[in-house]
Amino acid sequence: AMTLDAKAEVDGTLSGPDARLNLHAQLQPEDATHSAKPMHMKLQAQIHPWHQQALGHAQAQWQALNLAALWPGAPHTTLTGQATVTPKGTTWHAVAQLNNKNPGPWDQKALPLSQLSVQLQSHNAQWQIQHLDARIAGGRVQGDGQQTVAGWTGQIQIAGVQTRQLHTALSAAALQGRIQAEASGPKTVSFTADLSSAPGSEK
Fold first, then answer.
1. Which of 7, 105, 114, 200 has the fewest Cβ atoms nearer than 10 Å?
2. How far is CA 133 from CA 5, 84, 115, in A?
3. Cα torsion at 170, 173, 178, 184 (round to 10°)?
4. Residue range 73-84, pLDDT digits in tens
C-alpha cells in the first residue's frame, strides 16, 4: 500500500473586517523523491472569514494522480491537470482541465476518461455548465446545462463512444446521438435520448 504525506499551512490575520487567511496544502507519496514524475496534488486558497463570500480564490494542481491510492475501490488513474474557482460578487466561476494518461474500461478498475475540459458558473446557489468537452472511451462527449428551481435542463452530444472501452462485457459498438434533460415541473426532470450505434472496435 502507498503511504501518503499530507501537509497544510495557513497564514494571515483574523483581525478586522478585511481579515484574510492563505491556505497551502500538498499531498504526495512519502517516497516521491524516487520517482521521475511523482504523484502530487497542490491546493492554494484565499479565505476571508468575515465576508459573506468567504472563499476569495482557489487553485488546485495535480500530477500523476492515482485515485485508487486515495480511495479504496476507486479506479486506477494517472491524472494531470488543474482547476480554479474564482468568485465575483455572488457569482462563482470554476474552470478545470485534466488528462488521464492510462484510460481503460470500468471493469478493469480503470477510468474510460482520457481528457476533460469544463467551465462552470454558480449564481444564487444554482449551477450552470457553460462548457463540457470530454474524451471518453475513444469518442467525444460535449454538453451544457442549467440548474433551475425545478431541476436540471441541458443536453449532451455523444460521438463515437466505444462501448467495449466503457466495459468489456458490452457488445462492440460506437454510440452516436444526443441526450436531453428538461425540467418539466417542480422537482421533475424529463429525459429524451436519441442514440444510434454502429459496429465498433473490438479493442
1. 7
2. 33, 17, 8
3. -30
4. 999 999 999 999
